Amino acid sequence: MRPALLLPVLLLTLACSSKLERAKAEGLIRKDYPVVVPVTVPEKASAEKGSPEHLRLVTLKENLDKSGWFDSAVQAEGERETFTFRLKPDAPKSIKAAPKGFSMPAAEAVFVRAVHMEPTREGARVTYEIRLDKPTAQFPIFQAVHSDAALGQTRQRHATFERRRGSWALTGTDETYRKAE
User: Fold this and answer.
1) What is the pTM of this model?
2) pLDDT of 140 above 80
3) Which SS3 state, helix, strand or coil, does residue 72 take?
C-alpha cells in the first residue's frame, strides 16, 4: 500500500473505533456530579416501642430537637408511639416540602471513578463509584436515619451508553439523587 494512502486509512480506522474508552465514559458521567444527598423527615411516623424503627425515630427526634428547625411531638398509643414533625417558620429555606414530609440537604455525592465497563448490544454499561462528601449541618440527622452512612463511603452506580452519529452518548444512570438547583 502506498504511504500516502496509509495515513488516511489509519485515521479512518481510529475515528471509527467502536470501543468506549474509560476516560470518555468518566468525562460524560462526571458532568452530572456532584449531587445533593437529602435526608427526608416524615411528617408523621409510627413504630412499636423497642423496635429498630422506634429507636431510629427517637434518634431522629433528638437530632431534630437540637436543630431547632422543627416542632416535634410523641403520642403513645398502647405499644406504639406516633412521632409528628412540623417545620418551624424560621427554618432554613433549603428545607423543602416533600411527599409525606420534608427534604433537606445532608451532604454531596461526588464522582470517583469508573470501575467496570462491559459492551452491550446497544452500546456499553459502566459501573462507577460515587463518594459521600461535603456534609451539611443536617448530616447528623442523615446518620440518625441511615446508621450505616459515613463520610468518604463509596457506593456503586451504573450508566448506559449508546453510539450515536459516530460518538458515544450517556443515555442513563441509576443515580437516585439530583444535582443542586
Assistant:
1) 0.73
2) yes
3) strand
